[in-house]
């Protein structure tokens, strides 16, 4: 599978649009009326202030302290880029804040301190302590990071966690637990070689020793070779703690007979010769970024029995810190922890290891486009496993409670787990799953409107994201010019440009189309013009003949016109069961609305067809369909001729015996609100509807655009369903990203 390509221009644009940076602050309370303001600020705010002053613990009740983490750096060791300074580190810290929110619903603020003086840094962080529930230190160079973390742990009564050290250590430990399980070895018996005695490396070896690895069995190496008793060159107190009595002096010597290699060093540090000399079933964690000490391919060439992990997402067994720090802090915050201790880290590692040994849910396998089963290529859970949020924090919280780190222990752990399940936004995982499926499919995607800059950017992104091959319909010179104007001149050679003038299939396309249209008033000249001049028709013909796997169009013409042109080639109309379904993503909810594209004024049978199509789309997106036929009336009241078909449509589905939930007619609030549904105990939906079938296309369009413009919903669609081939039609207001999303849907064959 091709690796995704990200250009500098794309990275900068991502951080610039729609607003500079990667996060913003929103109020969680109403701020509409004078009364709201009086409660939020003066005079109402005085009451919680006095309560906290009298009892500091209530700060966790009346403020956001209990779910707020500071991501703090001085920028002295930014990624693999070195000392970029405090301001240069800000994009990374913002990114860390986003990851906290995305994976564990932890709010965080990035803080960049402009000092390389450890004492000044420590004092600044200590003074900010009352604001936060935890401190995440990031990208601070060694040895200062050791000094800073240790001192802050001593002086602060909230968790202080240096992720570069302990985050890596926890995930490494989780992977090693399972690797040793597979190889039939015990941690107290294995010989471990660590290459890289910086912050992460030292933390890894210290945690493994806490878990049972013997000091004398652990050989630590740095750029000067083995760290041994009596060595003076390049030493410090943290390295000295791991010096052993040995005759070994080089990494190559240390690797002979070793059971485990841990690398947090540099590309190429490990050779195939070293791997060949390791013990049976060697475990190799080559975690250098962006390129590992040795690649899995290189290791397996000489040792088929090796279990290999890296820090990269394009190889199996990714040692990814995002599996650790969000959930460690989630568990720690929820018990109002005084610290994140070793027991909590070890509990996190064991919980991660245990999760990897369980059956992988279908939605995870579907998202990654492959079967994931515990074994040599799956020893660590994937970052997008939805179980992480409700499996890891409880283990961390329990360890914190057992070791006295909790200020407020969790009484009902079962209720806590249920609450964790409800914290996460399902939309993110669904979209991630679609992207993963698209990468797995590797579809050749036809972009019909190669004269539009938005479409060209989407085509470039489609290919550079590793989704597959982008086929652009347009004139070569025109495409080249527009790519250059868009700052994508380097993409000219990447795209395949196709049009009627250079295709070898022109006559075949014409003959095919003539047979379809000859009894519909089209002669051969008409057909010739359609094939040669209409890009929608031409693109559809490419798709019909297997010269592409999917088609995305509609960015430059109204959807009705585009659909008419496509119908020359395919049966994409209401009489053949086609329907349009639009997905609305808003505040963690996904609601599908149909029909937004095909049926102008459907009757009850059409509405039933639309419901079936929408249910199919929902299942493709990983949703369990719950259909509501919506109107201005609920179960016959008020009586109206306009609502009658919405009342009859469920009866049509009754006769068909479909295998999804449906009900109606009902108002939208009853359909989407579980509390409102309780007033109708006879109704058949087991929860809020996620599919709304509306009376007509105009009401569908109004609903979607109102939610988009006033509610701020993200719109995906309309998704064309019920056509023999995968075709998606964009809106004329689509952005380049919208076009890309439609291409992803087409690649997944959602319709």
Unreliable stretches = none
Count of alpha/pi helices: 32
Number of beta-strand segments: 21
Query: What is the percent of helical residues?
Result: 40-55%
Quaternary structure state of the chains depicted:
single chain
Q: Shape from CA axes?
A: globular
Largest sheet, strands/sense/barrel: 6 strands, mixed
The spatial strand order of the largest sheet comes to 7-6-5-8-9-10
Radius of gyration: 30 Å
Q: Within the CATH hierarchy, at the fold level, what is the topology of the domain at 8-158?
A: Rossmann fold
CATH architecture of the domain at 8-158: 3-Layer(aba) Sandwich
CATH homologous superfamily identity of the domain at 8-158: Malic enzyme, N-terminal domain
Structural class: alpha/beta
Instruction: Return the CATH class of the domain at 8-158.
Output: Alpha Beta
Topology:
Elements: H1 8-16, H2 34-40, H3 46-54, H4 59-62, E1 68-73, H5 85-88, H6 90-104, E2 107-112, H7 118-127, E3 134-137, H8 144-155, E4 160-162, H9 163-183, E5 192-195, H10 199-210, E6 218-222, E7 225-226, H11 237-240, H12 251-255, E8 260-263, H13 272-276, E9 283-286, H14 296-302, E10 307-310, H15 325-334, H16 342-356, H17 362-368, H18 388-402, H19 413-421, H20 426-441, E11 445-447, H21 453-464, E12 470-473, H22 476-485, E13 496-498, H23 506-517, H24 524-533, H25 535-544, E14 550-553, H26 559-566, E15 579-586, E16 589-594, H27 604-620, E17 626-630, H28 644-656, E18 661-666, H29 668-672, H30 674-677, E19 691-693, H31 697-709, E20 714-721, E21 726-729, H32 736-748
Parallel strand pairs: 1-2, 1-3, 3-4, 5-6, 5-8, 8-9, 9-10, 11-12, 11-14, 12-13, 14-21, 16-19, 17-18, 17-19
Antiparallel strand pairs: 6-7, 15-16, 15-20
